[in-house]
Design goal:
- The protein is of the alpha+beta class.
- It is about 40% helix and about 15% strand.
- A hairpin with a 5-residue loop joins strand 2 and strand 3.
- Helix 1 crosses helix 2 and helix 2 runs parallel beside helix 4.
- The chain is globular and about 45 Å long.
- It starts with 7 loop residues before the first helix and ends with a helix.
Length: about 140
Amino acid sequence: MSATLYNTDILRLAANIPHQARLVDPMGTAERRSPICGSRVTVDVDLGPDGRVAAVGMLVRACALGQASSALLGAEVIGRTPDELAAARDALAAWLAAGEGEPPAWPGLAIFTPALPHSARHASIRLVFEAAAEAAAMAAAKQAA
Protein backbone atom coordinates (compact mmCIF):
# COMPACT_ATOMS: atom_id res chain seq x y z
CA MET A 1 0.00 0.00 0.00
CA SER A 2 1.21 3.43 -0.89
CA ALA A 3 1.01 5.92 1.96
CA THR A 4 0.15 8.70 -0.46
CA LEU A 5 -2.64 6.71 -2.09
CA TYR A 6 -4.21 5.43 1.13
CA ASN A 7 -3.75 8.56 3.20
CA THR A 8 -5.46 9.65 6.40
CA ASP A 9 -8.07 11.69 4.54
CA ILE A 10 -9.05 8.71 2.37
CA LEU A 11 -9.27 6.43 5.40
CA ARG A 12 -11.30 8.99 7.35
CA LEU A 13 -13.80 9.26 4.50
CA ALA A 14 -13.94 5.49 4.15
CA ALA A 15 -15.02 5.22 7.78
CA ASN A 16 -17.83 7.77 7.41
CA ILE A 17 -20.13 6.71 4.59
CA PRO A 18 -23.63 8.22 4.85
CA HIS A 19 -26.86 6.54 3.68
CA GLN A 20 -25.71 3.00 4.46
CA ALA A 21 -29.20 1.55 4.66
CA ARG A 22 -30.90 0.16 1.57
CA LEU A 23 -34.20 1.80 0.63
CA VAL A 24 -37.41 -0.20 0.81
CA ASP A 25 -38.94 -0.48 -2.68
CA PRO A 26 -36.67 2.10 -4.36
CA MET A 27 -37.58 3.72 -7.66
CA GLY A 28 -34.17 2.77 -9.06
CA THR A 29 -31.39 0.38 -8.04
CA ALA A 30 -28.03 -0.39 -9.62
CA GLU A 31 -25.06 -2.47 -8.61
CA ARG A 32 -21.50 -2.16 -9.84
CA ARG A 33 -18.58 -4.47 -9.20
CA SER A 34 -14.89 -4.09 -9.91
CA PRO A 35 -13.49 -7.30 -11.38
CA ILE A 36 -9.98 -6.21 -10.43
CA CYS A 37 -10.43 -5.98 -6.67
CA GLY A 38 -13.92 -7.37 -6.10
CA SER A 39 -15.33 -4.15 -4.72
CA ARG A 40 -19.11 -4.02 -4.98
CA VAL A 41 -21.49 -1.09 -4.53
CA THR A 42 -25.29 -1.09 -4.68
CA VAL A 43 -27.17 2.21 -4.83
CA ASP A 44 -30.92 2.72 -4.35
CA VAL A 45 -32.51 6.02 -5.40
CA ASP A 46 -35.89 7.66 -4.92
CA LEU A 47 -36.70 10.88 -6.75
CA GLY A 48 -38.98 13.58 -5.47
CA PRO A 49 -41.76 15.16 -7.54
CA ASP A 50 -39.19 17.71 -8.77
CA GLY A 51 -37.11 14.93 -10.36
CA ARG A 52 -34.24 15.35 -7.91
CA VAL A 53 -32.80 12.70 -5.62
CA ALA A 54 -34.93 12.69 -2.48
CA ALA A 55 -33.53 9.56 -0.83
CA VAL A 56 -30.56 7.28 -1.35
CA GLY A 57 -29.45 4.04 0.18
CA MET A 58 -26.12 2.33 -0.37
CA LEU A 59 -24.57 -1.03 0.33
CA VAL A 60 -20.82 -0.58 0.04
CA ARG A 61 -18.47 -3.55 0.08
CA ALA A 62 -15.36 -1.95 -1.31
CA CYS A 63 -11.74 -1.10 -0.71
CA ALA A 64 -10.84 2.15 1.02
CA LEU A 65 -10.90 4.07 -2.28
CA GLY A 66 -14.36 2.78 -3.13
CA GLN A 67 -15.56 3.54 0.38
CA ALA A 68 -14.14 7.07 0.26
CA SER A 69 -15.76 7.68 -3.12
CA SER A 70 -19.06 6.43 -1.70
CA ALA A 71 -18.73 8.86 1.20
CA LEU A 72 -18.17 11.77 -1.19
CA LEU A 73 -21.13 10.81 -3.34
CA GLY A 74 -23.36 10.23 -0.31
CA ALA A 75 -22.54 13.61 1.18
CA GLU A 76 -23.72 15.48 -1.93
CA VAL A 77 -26.23 13.28 -3.79
CA ILE A 78 -29.49 14.49 -2.21
CA GLY A 79 -31.03 17.19 -4.40
CA ARG A 80 -29.09 16.23 -7.54
CA THR A 81 -30.81 15.43 -10.82
CA PRO A 82 -30.18 12.25 -12.81
CA ASP A 83 -28.45 14.41 -15.44
CA GLU A 84 -26.13 15.90 -12.81
CA LEU A 85 -25.22 12.41 -11.61
CA ALA A 86 -24.52 11.26 -15.16
CA ALA A 87 -22.36 14.33 -15.76
CA ALA A 88 -20.42 13.70 -12.51
CA ARG A 89 -19.90 10.04 -13.50
CA ASP A 90 -18.62 11.04 -16.93
CA ALA A 91 -16.36 13.81 -15.63
CA LEU A 92 -14.84 11.50 -13.02
CA ALA A 93 -14.20 8.77 -15.61
CA ALA A 94 -12.62 11.25 -18.02
CA TRP A 95 -10.38 12.75 -15.33
CA LEU A 96 -9.18 9.37 -14.13
CA ALA A 97 -8.58 8.16 -17.70
CA ALA A 98 -6.62 11.31 -18.56
CA GLY A 99 -4.42 10.82 -15.50
CA GLU A 100 -3.97 14.54 -15.07
CA GLY A 101 -5.72 17.87 -14.96
CA GLU A 102 -8.18 19.47 -12.62
CA PRO A 103 -10.52 17.16 -10.72
CA PRO A 104 -14.22 17.27 -11.57
CA ALA A 105 -16.44 19.82 -9.84
CA TRP A 106 -18.03 17.29 -7.46
CA PRO A 107 -16.93 18.32 -3.95
CA GLY A 108 -13.95 16.43 -2.57
CA LEU A 109 -12.82 14.49 -5.65
CA ALA A 110 -9.38 16.15 -5.54
CA ILE A 111 -8.61 13.68 -2.75
CA PHE A 112 -8.14 11.05 -5.48
CA THR A 113 -5.35 12.94 -7.27
CA PRO A 114 -2.72 10.51 -5.88
CA ALA A 115 -4.65 7.66 -7.56
CA LEU A 116 -4.35 9.12 -11.07
CA PRO A 117 -1.23 7.09 -12.00
CA HIS A 118 -2.77 3.90 -10.56
CA SER A 119 -5.21 2.91 -13.30
CA ALA A 120 -5.98 -0.42 -11.60
CA ARG A 121 -7.59 1.56 -8.76
CA HIS A 122 -9.80 3.75 -10.97
CA ALA A 123 -12.69 1.26 -11.19
CA SER A 124 -13.11 1.28 -7.42
CA ILE A 125 -13.33 5.06 -7.38
CA ARG A 126 -15.89 5.12 -10.23
CA LEU A 127 -18.21 2.36 -8.92
CA VAL A 128 -20.55 4.41 -6.77
CA PHE A 129 -20.86 7.21 -9.32
CA GLU A 130 -21.72 4.67 -12.04
CA ALA A 131 -24.28 2.92 -9.84
CA ALA A 132 -25.87 6.19 -8.66
CA ALA A 133 -26.20 7.54 -12.21
CA GLU A 134 -27.79 4.30 -13.41
CA ALA A 135 -30.16 4.08 -10.43
CA ALA A 136 -31.22 7.72 -10.87
CA ALA A 137 -31.83 7.20 -14.60
CA MET A 138 -33.94 4.13 -13.77
CA ALA A 139 -35.89 6.13 -11.19
CA ALA A 140 -36.46 8.97 -13.69
CA ALA A 141 -37.77 6.50 -16.28
CA LYS A 142 -40.11 4.98 -13.69
CA GLN A 143 -41.29 8.44 -12.65
CA ALA A 144 -41.98 9.42 -16.26
CA ALA A 145 -44.03 6.27 -16.93
